[in-house]
Structure to design on (833 residues):
């Protein structure tokens, strides 16, 4: 996500590096480049204008006498401005002191409301709340069934009735009271913001159910239209926050910037995958970091903590320190990495990842090939790869259905990995100390 | 094999992160992991209870079932192929009532001006970008326009606009926009696209229109992933009187396509409409699955006539990536641009057409089946610049 935007910034600042000062001319040039990049990223053109003006002002007034290079200074300014635009701090749902808290999701057709409802219900449940899903999308065929299936998957009851959306909304509170649920997640039919009748229906639903949170669901792939959608929903229905969906694709997600800027409402959650667990609180600071190619180490660490078996990890780390991390250990840890989700996503989160690696198309199926090669080795070979001579290579290649070139490549790279591990072991395996990666371009420290 | 290196780096970071994690987080982690396991296992996904009165669909996992259209639905007698369905088609123009009002003023004052200055060029650029045409294509179009304006010695903004419109119409008119159909054999039209663009709805609308035109239609519910996608298609099949082939939720979509092809052959169907699960074009494994579906259809040589990419009109520049990736995977033959009845202009299809040569074939301009209409470049461009 936001990858191309970070690439753009990277290329701008790569060119900027090596220059001494930041004159008016440079600022203009940077502004032009940022404008292009943001427009290509689907940030609304009005938002781009105001964003650039703020960056220019900041940049012009910036004190360049500090130890940071001008390039780093500009990155910092753009970064901070992105964070500001995206919402400063992580937002939270408003909880009603007198339950049930009502969360109502609205948006265009196909933005992902129903799925987001299911994910939100799961999220709330995992926080110890008692959600009730309410299906008030009586328009799209089988929308109610879809929510019922999702409800079953996450173990949350679903309420609906084949009357009209306003009646469903009205009776939802009673149902929540009857079942003793403290949060209502209300799904509504998708609608165009210019459809007056349907927007009026939303307004009436709002009056009846008095939601504590009205969340606008926005597809991350939305283009310039994001602004008029957000404006209309904010004006006619009123919204309290935004859910950004389909962020796991390669959409640059300019819609996020646009929506936040025009509504002033925080982006609360992000949908980042097809599974119901792929739903995260939206972190503006991390997202801004991603935009600037700084990676998203925090998310990576969270994912690692959630998916890695701690005992195994500690064992592996000990071996690593002693410098005898073998292919067997590699294989074992590889299984854990797999659990963290598609490798491609993970790579995107790593700061300073060498570009040639970042752009590699990583097919998770290739992992099978790696596995096959390692499994075709004897235990001795896995422990000490220096044993592997020409005839052994041939045997391994045959055994794994690969070529000796593949085997060679694997061995060579494993040696590089071992090298990196030794470096890290040297650093004492301290938190946050990453070894220098091969071919790594210098990365501005922030 | 750079993979190993990548893996190594990931591993290293992951290890570093995990090894230093404090024990206090462990209980939280265990809970989270257990929960993850509980909800992510597709195999244990409970089957939806069939609604009373619905067609019986409960079968052992993996089996498909052909659901016949409900008795009592009149299927119109076949008409000679190629004849237009009789319904009065709404025109894009008629559907734009509200949107047009919002658009008025886009170029209203531009037309009134007398000289072509920088401001005029800026406004043109802005208008194209606002319509999601994209920075690159906009720059190309405007460069081209500068050249041709000189050639035609255009002197007023009004002339400039006309030149631009003519150019856009020309770009959009280049390809054949008809949907390929050969009578006397099953024709397969496959629908692909990212999540939430309106694939299933578009299929329903096309099925209705084709069935009304006398064609025997089989719908293949190969979206076995999204909850209730097959139910959605089933409701359409009952509404329009088409046959439906579906599998269990989570079943192999390939088996559904396979059975649909068999059913179409057995029943002498004219048209097989294959619904596929929405997928982001960046997911390698899902794109592979799509290729497989195409291969299954291709086992009947020549049956696959159209692979239609459905794009939501509000899509921004990502639409071009979508068209590229889907095009590479399954050779897309045309685009269906949906939800054009809002204020979104769908300018991204200009980029798709000019850079990839994939034409827009149909446009969705409303909720009803009659609202899926043939793409008309002139009306589209007019709407792009509605003033």
């Amino acid at each position: 996500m936001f990858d191309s935007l970070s690439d753009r910034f990277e290329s701008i600042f790569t060119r900027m590096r090596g220059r001494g000062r930041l004159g008016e001319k440079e600022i203009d040039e940077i502004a032009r480049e940022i404008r292009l990049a943001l427009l290509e990223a689907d940030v609304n053109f009005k938002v781009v204008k105001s964003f650039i003006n703020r960056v220019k002002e900041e940049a012009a007034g910036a004190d360049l006498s500090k130890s940071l290079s001008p390039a780093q200074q500009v990155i910092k300014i753009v970064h901070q401005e992105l964070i500001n635009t995206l919402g400063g701090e992580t937002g939270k749902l408003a909880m009603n002191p007198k339950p049930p808290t009502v969360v109502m999701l609205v948006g265009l057709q196909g933005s992902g409301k129903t799925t987001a409802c299911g994910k939100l219900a799961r999220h709330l449940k995992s926080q110890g709340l008692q959600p009730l899903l309410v299906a008030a999308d009586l328009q799209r065929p089988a929308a109610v069934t879809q929510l019922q299936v999702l409800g079953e998957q996450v173990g949350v009851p679903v309420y609906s009735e084949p009357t009209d959306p306003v009646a469903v909304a009205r009776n939802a509170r009673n149902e929540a009271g009857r079942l003793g649920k403290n949060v209502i997640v209300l799904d509504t039919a998708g609608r165009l913001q210019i459809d007056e009748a349907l927007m009026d229906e939303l307004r009436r639903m709002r009056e009846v159910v008095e939601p504590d949170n009205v969340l606008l669901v926005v597809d991350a792939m939305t283009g310039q239209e994001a602004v008029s959608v957000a404006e209309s929903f904010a004006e006619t229905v009123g919204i309290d926050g935004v859910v950004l969906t389909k962020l796991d694709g390669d959409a640059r997600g300019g819609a996020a910037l646009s929506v936040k800027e025009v509504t002033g409402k925080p982006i609360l959650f992000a949908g980042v995958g097809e599974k119901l667990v792929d739903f995260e609180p939206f972190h503006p600071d991390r997202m801004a970091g991603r935009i600037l190619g700084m990676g998203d180490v925090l998310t990576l660490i969270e994912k690692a903590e959630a998916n890695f078996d701690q005992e195994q990890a500690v064992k592996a780390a000990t071996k690593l320190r002693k410098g005898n991390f073998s292919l067997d250990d590699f294989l074992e840890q590889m299984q854990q990495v797999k659990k963290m989700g598609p490798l491609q996503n993970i790579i995107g989160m790593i700061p300073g990842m060498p570009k040639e690696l970042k752009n590699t198309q990583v097919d998770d199926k290739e992992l099978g090939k790696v596995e096959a090669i390692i499994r075709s080795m004897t235990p001795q070979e896995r422990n000490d790869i220096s044993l592997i001579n020409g005839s052994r290579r041939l045997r391994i290649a045959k055994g794994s259905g690969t070529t000796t070139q593949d085997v060679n490549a694997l061995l060579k790279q494993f040696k590089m990995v071992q090298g990196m591990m030794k470096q890290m072991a040297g650093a004492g395996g301290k938190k946050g100390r990453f070894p220098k990666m091969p071919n790594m371009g210098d990365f501005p420290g922030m | 094999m750079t993979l190993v290196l990548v893996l190594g780096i990931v591993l290293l970071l992951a290890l570093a992160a995990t090894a230093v994690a404090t024990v206090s987080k462990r209980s939280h982690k265990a809970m989270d992991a257990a929960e993850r396991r509980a909800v992510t296992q597709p195999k244990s996904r409970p089957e939806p209870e069939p609604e009373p009165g619905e067609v019986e669909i409960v079968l052992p996992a993996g089996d498909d079932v052909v659901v016949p259209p409900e008795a009592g639905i009149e299927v119109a007698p076949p008409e000679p192929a190629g004849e237009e369905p009789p319904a009065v088609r709404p025109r894009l123009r008629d559907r734009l009532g509200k949107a047009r009002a919002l658009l008025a003023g886009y170029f209203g004052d531009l037309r009134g001006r007398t000289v072509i200055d920088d401001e005029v060029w800026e406004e043109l650029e802005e208008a194209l970008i606002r319509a999601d045409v994209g920075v690159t294509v906009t720059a190309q179009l405007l460069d081209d326009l500068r050249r041709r304006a000189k050639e035609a010695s255009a002197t007023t903004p009004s002339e400039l606009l006309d030149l631009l419109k003519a150019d856009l119409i020309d770009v959009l008119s280049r390809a054949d926009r008809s949907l390929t159909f050969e009578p006397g054999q099953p024709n397969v039209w496959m629908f692909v696209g990212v999540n939430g663009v309106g694939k299933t709805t578009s299929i329903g609308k096309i099925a209705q229109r084709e069935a009304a035109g006398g064609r025997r239609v089989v719908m293949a519910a190969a979206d076995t992933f999204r909850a209730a996608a097959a139910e959605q298609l089933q409701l359409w099949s009952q509404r329009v009187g088409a046959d439906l082939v579906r599998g269990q939720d989570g079943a192999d979509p390939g088996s559904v396509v396979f059975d649909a092809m068999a059913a179409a052959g057995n029943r002498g169907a004219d048209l097989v409409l294959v619904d596929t699960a929405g997928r982001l074009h960046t997911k390698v494994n899902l794109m592979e699955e799509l290729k497989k579906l195409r291969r299954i259809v291709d086992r009947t040589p020549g049956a696959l006539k159209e692979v239609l990419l459905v794009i939501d009109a509000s899509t921004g520049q990502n639409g071009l990536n979508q068209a590229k990736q889907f095009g590479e995977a399954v050779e897309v033959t045309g685009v269906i641009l949906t939800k054009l009845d809002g204020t979104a202009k769908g300018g991204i299809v200009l980029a798709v057409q000019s850079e990839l040569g994939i034409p827009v074939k149909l446009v969705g301009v409303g909720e009803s089946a009659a609202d899926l209409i043939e793409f008309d470049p002139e009306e589209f461009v007019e709407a792009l610049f509605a003033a």
About this structure: Chain B touches chain A through 85 residues (CB under 8 Å). Confidence is low (pLDDT under 50) at residues 19-65, 68-87, 97-105 of chain B. Strands of chain B lie at 65-67, 187-192, 217-222, 243-246, 271-276, 304-312, 334-338, 360-364, 372-374.
